Amino acid sequence: MALEQFRVQIAMLMDEIAKAPEDRHELQESLREKLAEMQAMGLPLPHDLVDLEEYLEEDLEGAARRRRGKAGPAAEE
């Protein structure tokens, strides 16, 4: 039963990510928490969701680097 509950909760998170991509950082944190809960309960982690969480992390890090890159020359002036 616990696995099915996680599937429903994760499906809801995926819907939220699709509807509000600007909130992806908060939603990524929620996904990370759900995966950690599943792991703590000894449930298998779906590889596609683990891959998605890693992709979101890399995407957010890349966005942060791009923002720092844009802010760099303006900060020097």
Walkthrough of the structure:
The protein has 77 residues and is mostly helical. The chain is 84% helix and 0% strand. The chain contains 3 helices and no strands. The mean pLDDT is 80.
- Give the overall form: elongated
Strand tally, please?
Answer: 0
- Weakly predicted, low-confidence segments: none
What is the first-to-last residue Cα distance? Answer: 59 Å
Into which percent range does the helicity of residues fall? over 70%
**Average pLDDT reading:** 80
Rg? 16 Å
The number of distinct helices, counting runs of at least 4 residues, comes to 3
Provide a brief overview of the structure.
The chain contains three helices and no strands.
SSE map:
Layout: H1 2-19, H2 24-40, H3 47-76
Features:
3 helices; elongated; mainly alpha; 77 residues
